[in-house]
Amino acid sequence: MRIAVLVLLLTLLSTPAVSAEPEDNSLAGGVSSAVSASDAMKTVAAFDAIAKANGGNREAGKPGYEKSREYVEGVLERAGYRLIRQPVPFRAFAADAETLTAPDGRKVRTLMAQYAPSGQFSGPIAGAGAGCKAENYPQGTVIAVIRSGECLSGDKTVAARDAGVQAIVMYDVSPVIDTVIRRQVRGTVLPVSFVSQRDGEALIANPGVGQLDLRGRSFDATTVNLFAETSGGRPDSVVMAGAHLDSGADGPGINDNGTSAAALLETAVRLAPFQQKVPNKVRFAFWGAEELINIGSIHYIQTRTPEELKAISLYLNWELIASPNYVHFVIDGDDSDHAGTGAPPGPPGSGAVEAVMAQGYQLQGLPFRTADLADIRSDQEPFIGAGIPVGGAFGGVRGIKTADEAKVFGGTAGQPYDPCYHQPCDDLSNVNTKAFGEALRAMAWAVTRFAIDDNLRK
Questions:
Q1: Domains in the chain with CATH codes
Q2: How far is it, in rounded angstroms, from Cα 360 to Cα 262?
Q3: 105 pLDDT exceeds 70?
Q4: Active site residue: 290, 291, 319, 354, which one?
């Protein structure tokens, strides 16, 4: 089955001339058919077991990540790949104390914002709406409870400080009202922690004197980016395919992003027997510290020479491919479907990459949707900054599934694509195995399709 693929007139000499079709797609079809969802799920289960045995997470710089990397290394070495390990220095963060006592004496689960200031506070707790302006904060408030959104979180902390507030407790409005997600707050001038919507609204409804203890520290640490590349293929025409291997601090990270890493590993294993036959060198990337905002991939791009960057024809990225309430999303590389949303298109050539990514689902007779580049912030971003064409696919993150999406893909409208995102419940039970197998086959198609495209550097 042959499907015409969009060809873009590329404006930069260093970008790939992605062909409408290679002369022979049989290898791409063969690898896509050969990948085994059941074998890949064994890797997903291994990641889950590693997290359970190592403090409940696979966070960069922690034993769970190192054990995950060792597992992947073993599989790749047995498949015959040459491995490259790149040390990645970074500033890690640990929360040593994060406790919140409500005015009625109840202990409330709270998670300290990464890299935020520390402090211990006792005084009036009160709500301040979205907290975008100093006048939103009731006079005398020491600990303000605000909802996320409407303005930048860092700006909220400036407004709160100007109103005399000493600390912020923030919650997200979500259909999953008991979710608590730890994250960074860029530009914060106050200690910040996060609570669930249920707890946030309860604190607002019952103001009074409470206590908040937030003590965290930053320290130097090192993680590792792991690469495996084909022995064959042109070194000046490299197809990169990647997924981050680390989890967040507060869960095992199985859908995010163990599923994508496992699928990438399975794709590499099935491509391994054909390493010498591919015209383009394929470099599989398992990134470290993505959850701390793309640290591993940023370090990789920053440490490449101009010649090494020029040799990368394109980069493909996968995230959360098996969300329980999934949609098959493909990144809209040329912004043709999402013009006017404010997100710029990817570098020239990204639209052609998008078309091949979409083929992976089209060849299975499956529906898919396109998503704005800004909808999934991940390891493709440093490549965009370097002017390298990118593509990506994911199964949905914190967004809410629409009625139309539920009609097409099944699942539940009005609920998040992944209600366990960055939660302890992102374990083996959080994987939609149907979506996983479909995304795996689409991944194998796209990677091999680009591996055999001998027109990339013409």
A1: 26-81+230-451 (3.40.630.10), 96-217 (3.50.30.30)
A2: 17
A3: yes
A4: 290
